Amino acid sequence: MKCVAVVALLSLLSLGHSAPVSSCDSLVKPITISNEDMLGRWLYIGGSSDLPGSRSLGHLLTSAWLDITATTQSNILNLVQTQRIYGECSSLTYNVTFENSTMLIEQPFYLKEVYLKTDCSDCLVVHEEVVSGKDTFTSLLLFSRRKSVSPDALEMLKKQAECLRMPSPIMIELNYEICPDNILPSEGLSAFNSLLEAKMGHRVARLLDSLFDMFVN
Question: Do 136 and 144 touch, CB atoms closer than 8 A?
């Protein structure tokens, strides 16, 4: 009887710590978004990812923004990504395909982004899948037109991360300084691909992620 009671208690506890299936269905269901809605500047607020090194980077990243513009092709967007890491600013640029509320990169690696619901009217919640060789990684990212968002929007992001069984999001500090616009960007896809293909570096990056989460949080 004692064993039965313990099993029952553990079952109740596990139910208490997991999000209800019905609420998760609505929280992680992709939404419809147009090309025009994507355009403009998006400030990075925070996120979660299982990419090796992403947790370490999340603790060292002090600001980041995306500038998305249209091109002469209706289904192609240009992205300029600028970030400040440990006080140093850098910028990357790359093109993506955007159709049917989905962002795609097919070479030199596969990336697919869809967008999830949020309580914030000028926010963008990105659910991203990256495939490099036999490796698949997922990310959940929150962007906003403003430097800060409401506690409700942050709480929804945390619930979405729980539903997707991802680590708790790491948020940017509110008093951050944004990098200037005049940084000459380098080609971004080749830089991303080099990181994805560095298998030995993945082991070191995962170790650093664990250490950062252990000592910084």
Answer: no
